[in-house]
Amino acid sequence: PINYYANLNLSYILRIQKKYDLVEKLAKEMLTYYPIDISYLTELALSYVERKQIKPAIEIFRDILILDPENLTAKQYLEDEHVM
C-alpha cells in the first residue's frame, strides 16, 4: 500500500481520469511517508488546480520551488498564475 512508484503511477492515472479527490487523498497519504517529495507535491498541487483551489496550489508550487528551484511545472503554473 505504500509502494512509492506504484502509487505515483496510480496518482497520475487518476489525474488523467479526472478523479481529483482520489489524487488528493493518495498524494496526502504518501506525503505522510515522504513529506518533501516533489512528485507527490506536484500531483497534489495539480489536483488543486483542476478543482479551482488556486490558493493552496500556489502555496504548494512555491514550496516546490524552494525544494527544486528549477522545477518547470511549478515555474509554469506560478508564471501563469493569472490563467489558473
Number of strands: 0
- Quaternary organization: single chain
Topology order in helix (H) and strand (E) letters = HHHHH
Beta-strand percentage range: under 5%
**Rg, Å, rounded:** 12 Å
Number of helices: 5
Which runs of at least 5 residues are low in confidence (pLDDT < 50)?
none
Q: How does the overall form come out from the CA principal axes? A: globular
Helix content: over 70%
Query: What is the CA–CA distance across the termini?
Result: 33 Å
Give the integer mean of the pLDDT values: 94
Which secondary-structure class do the elements indicate? mainly alpha
Largest sheet: none
Question: Can you tag this structure with a few keywords?
Answer:
84 residues; mainly alpha; 0% strand; globular
Structure description:
It is built from 5 helices and no strands. The longest helix is centred in the N-terminal third of the chain and has 14 residues, at 20-33. Helix content is 74%, strand content 0%. α1 (4-16) runs antiparallel to α2 and α2 runs antiparallel to α3 (38-50). By secondary structure, it is mostly helical.
Topology:
Elements lengths: L3 H13 L3 H14 L4 H13 L3 H14 L4 H8 L5
In short:
This protein has 84 residues and is mainly alpha-helical. It has five helices and no strands.
